[in-house]
Amino acid sequence: MRSITFLLAFVIPVSAELTWQKPPKEILDILNAPATPVLSVNPSRTYAALSEAHRNPSIAEVSERETVRAARAKYEDELKKERYFF
Fold first, then answer.
1. φ, ψ (nearest 5 deg) of residue 42
2. What is the DSSP annotation of 2-59?
3. Pairing verdict, β 48-51 and 38-41
4. What is the pLDDT confidence band of residue 74, given thresholds at 50, 70 and 90?
C-alpha cells in the first residue's frame, strides 16, 4: 500500500503539468488534406458518380449532434412518463 501511495505522489503532479499539444505541421497537413474523390460506376457502365466524403467533422458539428441526441432522449423520457401517468 505504501508503494502505491509513493508512486501516486509522483504520477499525479507530472500528469497535472501536461498541456494540450498539437502534432507537428506535417501530420496536421495530412489530417486536414481533402479526401480523395471516389468514382462509382453502375453495373452497365453507362453512368458514373464522382463523390467526395467529409473526413473529419468539426467539434461544433459533433457537439451539436450530441446535444440533439441528449435533448431527444430527455424528451422521450418525459413522453414515457406522461403515457404511464395519464
1. -70, 165
2. HHHHHHHHHHHHHHHT----PPPHHHHHHHHSPPPPEEEE-TTSS-EEEE----S--H
3. antiparallel
4. confident
Confidence of residue 36 (pLDDT cuts 50, 70, 90): confident
Q: Into how many domains does the chain fold?
A: 1
The residue whose grid cell reads 453502375 is 42
What residues pair up with 38 in beta bridges, in sequence order? 51
Amino acid 59: pLDDT: 76
d(Cα 58, Cα 35) in Å, to the nearest integer?
15
The count of residues in the chain is 86
